[in-house]
């Protein structure tokens, strides 16, 4: 890659999560170890962000998401672009296209599998030709899931002599405020899918993000409100499972089926023991189903929009600091051997932790990945793997721990 002025440009720095990323980059990399700048569509809003973060000398670049010429100029100046401009299906196409064409590495925090699939089909060959490394899902969806499976599989091969044929992720505890951006992306996805049968089938396909020549045929299980006998606790569907499982299966495919062609993976939230856990599991599953069904109906969607957080709205700084997540990965091999990994984060998952994960993924892309690594559409685990795990543990408040069998 030709010499660039910056290592990273944060595009969408004026968004809610973009401001948190900007603050994190200032706190972590304000010493100049990583050269970075901020970009967005409004000069005055960029100036407001710079002022609030305490960055009087930061470079500010104005570019609208629809202005291809301005986005080309961004790519000409940086090794890596961070994009926080969602819903990506509405605002992300041109920036990703320009990055793929110019050999500029790219990461985002999308959880929109239909958009990812569309971008893969349109730009993967271009990215391979230019050397651009495109890495979606570098926030809470799907770094903890993707890297948690990566760490568990690596441990299983080394300690047990074989990979896990099945891994079940359980969200043991989670605390965080509602994300307006995530809700907006979900609403847009449900709205689009409600009138598109082909898209609905695609969203149900756990292998939809795998390369077209994948040979995975194993039927994946749909988690309901049920008791997990291993934990002695009730579980319920986890809302991020729809994107996380697709990323994990793509990692398996890109790594030469290193998890096995019969690999099974599922995610669920733990709601507790006994009658109380059962009640919470059923209510959560019912509420998630009702929300999805309601969003598909225009009048109800309009009504929900009156009460749900809007894009740009999210938890307060205190709520971000007091948030956390604790995820347990339960693995079993084909011969019945067991292994477990625990992944934790020390901030609100949707914003506080996501901003740190996204920033460290970008720093890893800019500083740690050799020029010999080819371009294309990667996953966090397959492109950055252990290197990103080390960065997240050192800088971002995440832990990846091998748990002895109970």
Low-confidence stretches: none
Number of helices: 16
Distance, first to last CA: 49 Å
Structural class: alpha/beta
Strand order of the largest sheet: 3-2-1-4-5-6-13
Give me the count of strands: 14
Secondary-structure element sequence? EHEHEHEHHEHEHEHHEEHEHHHEEHEHHE
Mean pLDDT: 92
Helix content bin:
40-55%
**CA radius of gyration:** 20 Å
Biggest sheet details = 7 strands, parallel
% residues in beta strands: 15-25%
Overall tally of structural domains: 2
Overall geometry comes to globular
Folded structure, characterized:
By secondary structure, the chain is α/β, with parallel strands linked by helices. The protein has 2 domains: 6-140 and 352-399, NAD(P)-binding Rossmann-like Domain (Rossmann fold), CATH 3.40.50; 143-347, no CATH class. The protein has helices at residues 16-29, 43-53, 68-77, 88-91, 93-102, 113-130, 143-160, 180-194, 197-204, 241-254, 274-295, 298-305, 317-322, 349-367, 380-383, 385-395; strands at residues 6-11, 36-40, 60-62, 78-83, 105-108, 133-135, 164-175, 226-228, 233-237, 264-272, 324-333, 338-345, 376-378, 398-403. The strands form 2 sheets. The protein has a 7-stranded parallel β-sheet, with helices on both faces. A 7-stranded mixed β-sheet has the order 8-9-10-7-11-12-14. Strand 2, helix 2 and strand 3 form a beta-alpha-beta unit. Helix 3 (68-77) crosses helix 5. It is globular, with a radius of gyration of 20 Å. It starts with 5 loop residues before the first strand and ends with a strand. The mean pLDDT is 92.
């Amino acid at each position: 890659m030709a010499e660039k002025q910056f290592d990273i440009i944060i595009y969408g720095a004026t968004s809610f999560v973009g401001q948190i990323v900007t603050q994190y980059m200032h706190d972590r990399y304000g010493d100049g170890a990583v050269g970075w700048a901020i970009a967005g569509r409004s000069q005055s809003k960029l100036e407001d962000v710079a002022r609030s973060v305490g960055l009087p000398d930061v470079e500010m670049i104005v570019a609208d998401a629809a202005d291809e010429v301005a986005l080309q100029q961004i790519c000409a100046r940086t090794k890596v672009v961070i994009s926080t401009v969602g819903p990506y299906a509405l605002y992300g196409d041109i920036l990703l296209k320009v990055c793929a064409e110019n050999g500029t590495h790219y990461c985002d925090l999308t959880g929109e599998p239909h958009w990812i699939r569309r971008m893969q089909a349109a730009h993967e060959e271009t990215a391979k030709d230019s050397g651009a490394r495109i890495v979606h899902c570098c926030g809470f969806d799907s770094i903890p899931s993707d890297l948690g499976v990566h760490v568990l599989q690596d441990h299983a091969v080394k300690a047990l002599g074989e990979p896990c044929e099945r891994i079940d992720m359980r969200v043991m505890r989670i605390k965080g405020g509602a994300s307006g951006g995530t809700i907006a992306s979900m609403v847009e996805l449900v709205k689009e899918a409600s009138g598109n049968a082909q898209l609905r089938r695609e969203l149900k396909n756990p292998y939809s993000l795998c390369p077209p020549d994948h040979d995975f045929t194993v039927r994946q299980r749909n988690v309901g409100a049920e008791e997990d006998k291993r934990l002695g606790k009730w579980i319920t569907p986890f809302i991020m499972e729809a994107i996380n499982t697709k990323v994990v299966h793509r990692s398996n495919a890109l790594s030469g089926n290193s998890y096995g062609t019969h690999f099974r993976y599922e995610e669920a939230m733990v709601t507790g023991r006994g009658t109380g856990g059962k009640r919470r599991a059923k209510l959560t599953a019912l509420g998630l189903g009702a929300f999805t069904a309601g969003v598909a109906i225009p009048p109800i969607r309009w009504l929900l929009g009156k009460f749900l957080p809007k894009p740009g709205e999210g938890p307060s700084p205190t709520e971000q600091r007091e948030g956390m997540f604790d995820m347990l990965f339960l693995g079993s091999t084909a011969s019945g051997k067991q292994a477990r990994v625990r992944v934790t984060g020390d901030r609100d998952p949707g914003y506080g932790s996501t901003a740190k994960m996204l920033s460290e993924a970008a720093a890893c892309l800019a500083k740690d990945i050799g020029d010999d690594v080819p371009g294309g559409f990667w996953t966090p685990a397959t492109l950055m793997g252990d290197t990103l795990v080390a960065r997240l543990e050192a800088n971002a408040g995440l832990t990846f721990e091998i748990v002895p069998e109970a």
